Amino acid sequence: MANTSEIKNGLCLNFSNDVWKVVEFLHVKPGKGPAFVRTKLKSLTSGKVVDNTWPSSHKIDIVRVERKKFQFLYKDDSGYHFMENETYEQVMLEEKLIDNPGLLKEGAEVDVLFDSSKDLPLTMDMPQFVEMEITYTEPGIRGDTATNATKPATIETGAEVRVPLFINEGDKIKIDTATGSYMERVKS
């Protein structure tokens, strides 16, 4: 057992008969009253996201997880399929357990988190940034750069991302996988 002072983003814990991953947390010390920890938790079995508040120094049950490197193979009706590069073992994860699945490109290296006590795959973590090529976007309107205007663009996986007006088809861009937003254009 641990207490709430050990909570951090990405921590997995047992709560309400389920395994949850901490998406966000905030330690609050009000001027009057006791301190508390406000969290946003994502269920690793159902994908449901809930807010929860614990008093400071409350006991929590941390789940030991192992990270293993896997390669994304393909997506079908049953889910997303990954293969471990050393043992060629394959696992499948449902779409609801993956954040921003539209940013997964075949052959991408990802971390799959396993519950170490049950050897059960829980979720998948992508790299912080991915580079994708723009396959379709409308041309930018000349002279419309006074504001931070954006336009929709389709990337090579078929997902849609908002990009600045100067981005054209064929450009490579860097995308933040946590938010699914444009970061910068990649130099060729």
Give an overview of the whole structure.
The chain is an all-beta fold and 188 residues long. It has three domains: 2-62, Roll (SH3 type barrels), CATH 2.30.30; 65-125, Beta Barrel (OB fold (Dihydrolipoamide Acetyltransferase, E2P)), CATH 2.40.50; 129-185, OB fold (Dihydrolipoamide Acetyltransferase, E2P). Helix content is 0%, strand content 54%. It is built from no helices and 16 strands. Strand 10 (109-115) and strand 11 form a beta hairpin. It is flat. The mean pLDDT is 88.
Please write the string of helix (H) and strand (E) elements: EEEEEEEEEEEEEEEE
Q: Main β-sheet: number of strands, strand sense, barrel status? A: 6 strands, antiparallel
Main-sheet strand order equals 1-6-2-3-4-5
Strand percentage, roughly?
over 45%
What is the CATH-assigned architecture of the largest domain? Roll
Helical fraction equals: under 10%
CATH-assigned fold name of the largest domain: SH3 type barrels
Number of domains: 3
Secondary-structure map with pairings?
Layout: E1 2-3, E2 12-15, E3 18-28, E4 36-43, E5 49-55, E6 59-62, E7 65-76, E8 79-84, E9 90-93, E10 109-115, E11 120-125, E12 129-137, E13 150-155, E14 160-164, E15 172-176, E16 181-185
Antiparallel strand pairs: 1-6, 2-3, 2-6, 3-4, 4-5, 7-8, 7-10, 8-9, 10-11, 12-13, 12-15, 13-14, 15-16
